[in-house]
Design a protein that fits this description.
Elements (H helix, E strand, L loop, with lengths): L2 H36 L9 H7 L6 H18 L1 E3 L2 E5 L9 E15 L16 E13 L8 E12 L9 E2 L17 E13 L2 E9 L27 E12 L2 E8 L4 E2 L7 E9 L5 E16 L5 E15 L5 E14 L2 E15 L4 E14 L3 E14 L7 E12 L12 E12 L1
Parallel strand pairs: 6-11
Antiparallel strand pairs: 1-2, 2-3, 3-4, 3-20, 4-5, 5-7, 7-8, 8-9, 9-10, 10-12, 12-13, 13-14, 14-15, 15-16, 16-17, 17-18, 18-19, 19-20
Helix pairs in contact: 1-3
């Protein structure tokens, strides 16, 4: 595609984003007031007491959203496009050789179920049935490079707004309370999140990074532009979204990389309230040009703190993730995944096991087809178990005229041995259809 046309399309998209953010900012105060009227009864919203403490924050959202629009305009004017990323050359001439990769996406769509239930319960898709702005995501990354020199430094920063922010927000600290709305079940939906914020230094084949990171577990990335399906699979329910701490990586062995780290529990953001402490290890072996094997493990205390009554609450255990990927050619990709979680929660043990299989076939640069099947078992104290089965098929279409646009329809079927679907959540199965549009930069 000619560069002038690409720049024209990109400018139109960013102009649309600016207008959208401005419009949302101007009407947000009225929306917030309408929501507050909807949640007048405390029993309707389990978070109503918490929301009342932060309702004054809604008055400033218009200014913040307009500021984000201004940032988008600045990025459009100041940065140069290249190969799906934006190359940023530092304004400081003493760092002219350093580059930051800026990437991101804007995506939205509709995910609806056959029962017409307002809440898409039991699946990691849009929390409400209907259209949603899933995310406006931007990430800045500078990887340390030691080729030809012993030392270098880097950093990473991710920020997003949308309905998918609930998939990234921590349980305690950082962006814990950055949500701006609730669904009909009282769960936080739209809001902001900061999935990553870290710095790193490298010496030859060693890299040390400290900060807040996307958790190094699982095959499907929570960033929508880095996975095939619109929805996340069952394995995402047992995997942590983010971790906070430090990691040391060694890449001096050909076809093998190893990472070890220490983090303060799962889904914590620079907060000591959980008292957790986990050791994490991750190993990836690229056996051949077509096969790779990744194993990740975490063990320790998820939570270890004293309650107000003086009692001690401790939750310890381990997490294991195994990924085998086989890509015999440029068209076929086969991925087998296995996740196991063991948690010692007070007087009982909670164990979860998820087994999944992914198959993808790329027809050409425009069309790609995929299928995903998963089975999950949740066992608590050996007393009972819950079995979930999920199957999804999807299509990815990228028009040649707009290479960064993807249209992704998905048909998904879920079933369980307990009632969890439907309007009254009295059904054991659910069929869903989702259609998403994603523009990546």
């Amino acid at each position: 595609m000619p560069r002038k046309k690409d720049l024209f399309l990109r400018s139109r998209l960013l102009a649309f984003v600016v207008v959208l953010l401005t419009a949302v900012g101007n009407c947000w105060e009225n929306v917030a007031q309408a929501q507050s009227r909807d949640w007048t009864h405390a029993d309707s919203d389990p978070n109503s007491a918490e929301r009342s403490l932060y309702k004054d924050d809604d008055d400033d959202l218009a200014v913040l959203l307009c500021a984000l629009g201004a940032v988008a305009v600045f990025v459009d004017c100041a940065l140069k496009t290249g190969d799906g990323f934006i190359d940023v050359t530092s304004l400081d001439q003493t760092r002219a050789g350093r580059k930051t990769q800026v990437s991101g996406y804007v995506n939205g769509g509709c995910f609806a179920n056959t029962y017409g239930a307002c809440y898409n319960g039991g699946i990691s898709a849009g929390s409400e049935s209907g259209f949603a702005l899933n995310g406006a995501y931007i990430a800045a990354l500078k990887e340390p490079e030691t080729d030809g020199k012993p030392f270098d430094w880097g950093y990473g920063f991710d920020f997003m707004f949308g309905e998918d922010s609930r998939l990234f927000r921590v349980e305690r600290g950082l962006d814990e309370r950055w949500h701006t709305g609730h669904n009909r079940s009282g769960e936080p939906t739209y809001g902001f999140a900061m999935p990553q914020l870290y710095g790193s230094v490298a010496y030859n084949d060693w890299t040390f990074a400290v900060g807040h990171f996307l958790a190094p577990f699982g095959y499907e990335n929570r960033r929508a532009d880095k996975r095939f399906f619109y929805s996340l699979g069952l394995s995402s329910d047992v995997q942590p979204a983010t971790v906070t701490g430090g990691f040391l990586t060694y890449s001096g062995i050909e076809n093998l990389s190893a990472t070890v780290g220490l983090v303060d529990g799962m889904d914590q953001g620079f907060s000591l309230r959980s008292g957790g402490s986990l050791v994490i290890g991750s190993f990836k072996w690229t056996a051949t040009e077509t096969t790779s094997l990744t194993y990740s493990v975490a063990a320790g205390d998820y939570v270890d703190r004293r309650l107000r009554n003086g009692a001690r609450f401790k939750n310890c255990g381990s997490f294991h993730s195994l990924i085998f990927e086989y890509a015999p050619d440029d068209q076929w990709t086969f991925v087998t995944t296995a996740d196991y979680v063991n948690e010692d929660v007070g007087p009982r043990d909670v164990n979860s096991f998820v087994l999944g299989q992914h198959v993808y076939y790329a027809v050409d640069d425009s069309w790609k087809f995929g299928a995903r099947v998963e089975w999950r078992r949740l066992m608590e104290g050996g007393l009972y178990h819950v079995d979930d089965f999920g199957f999804a098929v999807g299509v990815g279409y990228t028009p040649m005229e707009i290479e960064r646009l993807s249209i992704r329809p998905e048909l998904r079927f879920d079933t369980c041995n307990v009632d969890k679907f439907g309007t009254a959540r009295d059904k054991k199965a659910q069929l869903c259809l989702g259609v998403e549009a994603l523009y990546a930069f």
